[in-house]
Design a protein that fits this description.
Blueprint lengths: L1 E5 L4 H4 L5 E5 L6 H12 L25 H9 L1 H4 L11 H4 L18 H11 L12 E7 L2 E3 L5 E3 L1 E6 L4 E3 L5 E4 L5 E3 L4 E4 L4 E9 L2 E9 L7 H5 L6 H13 L9 H13 L5 H16 L2 H4 L20 H21 L3 H14 L3 H4 L1 H16 L4 H9 L3 E2 L6 H6 L3 H12 L19 H8 L5 E5 L11 E5 L32 H9 L7 H14 L19 H13 L4 H10 L26 E2 L2 H12 L25 H5 L19 H9 L1 H8 L4 H7 L4 H12 L6 H9 L8 H13 L2 H4 E2 L1
Parallel strand pairs: 4-12
Antiparallel strand pairs: 1-2, 3-6, 5-10, 6-7, 8-11, 9-10, 11-12, 13-15, 14-15, 16-17
Helix pairs in contact: 2-6, 8-22, 9-12, 10-12, 12-23, 13-15, 18-19, 21-22, 21-23, 27-31, 28-31, 29-30, 29-31
């Protein structure tokens, strides 16, 4: 505010002249507006300091100031006010300890004479106000520059502004906390000074102040950008390619070449249905491709149109030769995609993936309950149930754990808060777990958001046999009954149902709140649902999501290509949440069909999809691949004869192989995300596995049958390559492998087994590429 201050009057002025000058007087200090942000900047309410669950040396603050009322009480009133001394502010413990005037386990937090020190002194002298009269509320936080392109090695100072309800704006850069999501792209210091690294890519720096966050986006292009005509000339199969190429152009990346037909066959089959192509399928696909590219009649006739959306017809002859070849290749691959997605293995593969996310521990909920949920998942994918219907059936289930699969989820997650954690992560792609106890450190979500979401599940009731681990065999019924409530753990207020960033639910007295949640969730304009779904499916086909981790959408973890994610989500909604349509769209894109071999522009690219990323096969898929290649199947308890690993319905069913390759621990709470990295344990398991050696030497196995055939060594080697790697060997590979048959002391049997063993232990077999 401005204040009129009169100076000393001179004799002349005392005769009638008066002079005044206008000076700025700082407003009264507020605990909420001024002191808490200063303490947060000093780190006093960090989880490693006084915000520990038990506090530190008898002094406790809330994490990130999520409970300011409690923080004020602990500072001003706790222990009879021993931490504050208003009549002599510098003698207060809240100043003496952080300035190390007396020993402080947390060390020096701010200097004497610093702005924070002077602010606290003023606050103490003014009477330690919690808030001031008509104090405006903080509404939003902005950071400048919001988005900018930087050269490598550049430096930029950020400006952070707080905007209040009365229209006032404050520069809070000094009090904001900063964090970079990728320190190889850019680092940021405590003052908001950004230093750009030496890598090409995108990053984000997040500024946090008083519970709000704002982001500054950083784009670091390659040292040498390529002409736009080069990108315009790139072949495009659908909108995915157009939006991906636009991103590559901004970053100076060129996509890799197209993968070979055999690579595409293997990649698509493993990604979509978890199945290794057979030698017969590889030969037939190569023969069809050869005929198609040669323009023979055999390649120009229509193929069997399995799904009704594609047929093997080629572009008109008037197209240029290269374009005609591209069109023929795309038609061939589109027909293959339809054929793959129509196979029955599709349901088992995707049900197994969703089992990771929903399947509980059978020791907790009961073996029959887990089986019921598993069968519901498999039936859902056999029917190609629309994703919105799939989710609605989970959210609104009423029934028993021995008849209705989704009821098992409610048997496992028995409290509204537990359901909130799971469903927000799965269906919103947002991890609200942090907001269960305190304000989310890197997002806008508060405890209010968490418990308002939990209120949707307050009226779900149970009756019947509850949990009795380790058996829990009883039947339990879940149903809606009005009257339930969820209370805020700090304020004790009864929370009204409201979805994150959504309107409060308008409910009748006897209405199930979950129906309002489901309606909001699957609405076409929902900002979370479709994006979370397409991102999860995308990650299956590319090895990582457009947002990674796939269930962690937040301002500090931005999407690498927002226009592409939005377009995929819009197309998904437009086509009725059809998962197979989404998968078909992804697999038909040229982006999905790129080679994993990098070029000079994309060698360091690990997140923008300018090349295919090699990724280890999941445990079940790899075991099935070994079984299919060797011709000897594993047997699993509690399954039908001849069941595949992807049909195993419980993690309690023993398999040392799958456990070695990171099948989720059966005691883990879902959702379980798998460790995708290759480990020494896995390599040693493949190299030394007695079970694998037994399959290689089995009398009914593929190796023994090839030995007993009249095939030449070259034909045997070719068959082994087609079986394990889905391609014929190169000339050099064929020469090296056939030499094993003429090695000293080698027999036809030992040479065949040795070559087969080497192929099954190769990275090309273990990885999809």
């Amino acid at each position: 505010m401005r204040e009129l201050v009169r100076g000393n009057l001179s004799p002349h002025e005392r005769e009638g002249r008066a002079e005044a000058q206008t000076v700025l007087t700082p407003p009264p200090v507020s605990f909420i507006r001024d002191v808490l942000p200063a303490l947060s900047k000093a780190g006093c309410n960090a989880g490693s300091c006084h915000a520990k669950a038990e506090g530190q040396n008898g002094f406790k603050l809330s994490v990130f100031s999520y409970d300011p009322t409690s923080d004020y009480a602990h500072i001003v009133k706790d222990a009879r006010g021993r931490r504050v001394f208003p009549s002599a502010p510098d003698e207060s413990l809240i100043i003496r300890k952080p300035t190390t005037a007396i020993p402080h386990e947390g060390g020096l937090r701010f200097e004497r004479g610093s702005e924070t020190h002077l602010l606290l002194v003023r606050w103490l002298r003014e009477g330690m106000a919690y808030s001031v009269t008509n104090e405006p509320a903080l509404q939003r936080l902005l950071v400048f520059p919001k988005e900018r392109r930087y050269h490598k090695g550049a430096v930029q100072r950020l400006l952070v502004e707080a905007h209040y309800s009365d229209g006032s704006v404050r520069d809070v850069t000094r009090l904001a906390a900063f964090a970079s999501n990728d320190k190889e792209i850019a680092t940021v210091d405590e003052h908001g000074m950004i230093t750009i690294g030496a890598l090409t890519g995108q990053g984000v720096v997040v500024a946090r102040y008083a519970g709000l966050v704002a982001d500054a986006h950083i784009l670091v292009p390659a040292d040498r950008l390529l002409p736009g005509a080069q990108y315009a000339a790139l072949p495009k199969n659908n909108f995915i390619d157009e939006l991906a190429y636009a991103q590559f152009q901004r970053l100076g990346l060129l996509p890799s070449e197209l993968c070979t037909d055999t690579e595409f066959l293997r990649r698509a089959s493993l990604d979509a249905i978890g199945l290794l192509p057979t030698p017969k399928e590889v030969r037939e696909f190569l023969e069809t491709a050869t005929s198609a590219y040669a323009g023979e009649k055999a390649g120009e006739r229509e193929s069997e149109n399995v799904s009704g959306s594609h047929s093997l017809t080629f572009s008109p002859a008037h197209l240029p030769g290269e374009d005609r070849l591209t069109a023929r290749r795309q038609a061939l691959r589109s027909a293959l995609v339809d054929k793959i997605l129509a196979r029955p293995e599709y349901a088992d593969y995707w049900a197994n993936k969703w089992g990771d996310l929903l399947r509980p521990n059978p020791d907790r909920v009961g073996v029959k309950s887990v089986f019921t949920l598993d069968q519901w998942l498999r039936d859902s994918f056999r029917l190609n149930k629309p994703y919105d219907q799939f989710v609605r059936e989970i959210l609104l289930v009423e029934g028993t754990n021995h008849r209705d699969g989704p009821a098992v989820i409610y048997r496992d997650r028995r409290e509204p808060a537990d359901l909130t954690t799971m469903f927000s992560q799965l269906f919103l792609g947002t991890r609200l777990e942090c907001a269960r106890c305190h304000h989310h450190p890197n997002e806008k979500w508060s405890q209010d958001d968490f418990y308002q979401f939990a209120a949707f599940f307050a009226s779900v009731k149970q009756k019947g046999a509850g949990l009795s681990p380790p058996i829990s065999a009883g039947t339990e019924t879940f149903y809606f009954a009005s009257g339930g409530s969820v209370k805020h753990p700090v304020t004790g207020a009864v929370m009204s149902p409201r979805p994150p960033d959504g309107p409060s639910a308008q409910l009748g007295n006897e209405a199930d709140p979950r129906r309002a949640l489901a309606d909001w969730l699957i609405a076409p304009d929902n900002p979370f649902f479709a994006r979370a779904a397409v991102n999860r499916v995308w990650a299956n086909f590319f090895g990582r999501g457009l947002v990674e981790p796939v269930d962690d959408f937040r301002i500090s973890n931005p999407c690498v290509n927002p226009p592409l994610l939005d377009a995929l989500a819009e197309d998904f909604v437009k086509h009725g949440y059809d998962l197979k349509h989404l998968m078909r769209t992804i697999m038909e894109s040229r982006l999905y069909q790129l080679s994993s071999t990098p070029n000079e522009t994309n060698l360091a690219d690990t997140r923008n999809f300018s090349r295919a990323y090699r990724r280890r096969l999941p445990a079940e898929v790899l075991l099935d691949a070994v079984d299919d290649a060797t011709g000897v199947s594993d047997t699993f308890a509690a399954t039908t004869v001849g069941a595949r690993a992807t049909q195993v319905w419980s993690y309690k069913i023993e398999s040392q192989f799958m456990d070695a390759f990171n099948r989720p621990n059966p005691s883990s709470d879902p959702p379980c995300e798998r460790d995708k990295d290759l480990s020494v344990v896995q390599s040693l398991h493949l190299m030394n596995s007695k079970a694998l050696q037994a399959k290689l030497s089995n009398d009914n196995g593929r190796a023994r049958k090839l030995v007993a055939s009249d095939k030449s060594p070259a034909e045997i080697v070719t068959e082994l390559y087609l079986t394990s790697l889905s391609r014929p060997p190169t000339e050099d590979e064929l020469q090296i492998a056939t030499d094993a048959f003429s090695a000293p002391d080698a027999t036809r049997q030992t040479a065949t087994e040795d070559v087969f063993w080497a192929l099954l232990n190769s990275a090309e077999f273990v990885f999809n590429h």
